[in-house]
């Protein structure tokens, strides 16, 4: 389906739902782990430094990788790289739920950040290809609301999961959500155009993005 056809089809709202679902879990995953840190400390015998990396490694990887991943999306195709990011996010979530050591959890969180770095900018970049100019502000508003909603909802979701399941459920929760977003994206999102952009890599911006990342979480005492 062409971009013009999709902008006139009711399927554009389903495409928006798939995109907002993916950014919702990105925001949620930034904070959902915080309520699980005391449990992880006890179950996996993680020290304070490891808990800091579990909590903050995700956001660090996200901030460092977002700029270069956006550039790769321009070169390789937004849809292709977005779907790869969603798949990576789901696989890393599954790996995190099965982790048996603090190092494995840290690695899973870092890979989750890489997946999130593909989802955030590329889902936004696809919106103008799905919606006509007059509907684009409404679509961006919905996308932005989903992005903003994820982080405050994370601790609520994490607390509920820990009340009913084991600590790995805060990772496993993402797997079916990512699977739905991936299938919907494959079905609904427009294919990439045959074009290549060759903008130079912004090494300075990438480095400053990583250095400027705040410490979003603190380890439990």
Report on this model:
The protein is mostly helical and 221 residues long. The chain has helices at 3-7, 11-31, 37-44, 48-76, 78-97, 102-130, 136-164, 169-172, 174-188, 203-211. Helix 5 runs antiparallel to helix 6. It starts with a helix and ends in a 10-residue tail after the last helix.
Strand residue percentage: under 5%
Question: Total number of β-strand segments?
Answer: 0
Mean pLDDT, all residues: 83
Multimerization status? single chain
Q: State the low-pLDDT regions, or none.
A: 215-221
Amino- and carboxy-terminal Cα gap: 54 Å
Number of helices: 10
Shape: elongated
Rg for CA atoms: 18 Å
**Helix amount:** over 70%
Decide which structural class fits the backbone: mainly alpha
Instruction: State the order of secondary-structure elements, H for helix, E for strand.
Output: HHHHHHHHHH
- Major beta sheet, specifics? none
Short description:
The chain is 76% helix and 0% strand.
List the helices and strands and how they pair.
Blueprint lengths: L2 H5 L3 H21 L5 H8 L3 H29 L1 H20 L4 H29 L5 H29 L4 H4 L1 H15 L14 H9 L10
Key terms:
76% helix; mainly alpha; single chain; 0% strand; disordered C terminus; 221 residues
